[in-house]
Amino acid sequence: MLLEQKTQEIDKNTLQIENAVVRIDRSYKNILQLKNKLNSYSYEPRTYSLYQQLEELKLKLELISVSHLKLMNTLKKPVHFIESQIQLVKENLEAVHVIEQDVSDYISLAK
Questions:
Q1: Could you give the residue ranges of the DSSP H alpha helices within 1-111?
Q2: Which of 33, 38, 51, 65 could join 45 in a cystine, given CB atoms 3.0 to 4.6 angstroms apart?
Q3: Other CB atoms closer than 10 Å to residue 38's CB: what's the count?
């Protein structure tokens, strides 16, 4: 009975980790697309303030992409504190959502 419960808990944790890895991987690919979009000549800044905004977005995207890579590497190893790792995944995904909105705002201004 106890062994069965432990096995179910391990299976549940494994599934959570696998889902988190998939979500972070998808988000990482989305970040790469945003980086490519910002590097397009179509969205080059026309004013100094747009230039500053673009540089800030590029920095944020670089930082969050590094964070995603570290998190993916951590999750692919055996994880002991699953709840804290899942919380990190949620925080990273929320940060990406904010950056996506910032990129969208910049693109609308740069057109």
A1: 2-38, 48-76, 82-110
A2: 51
A3: 19
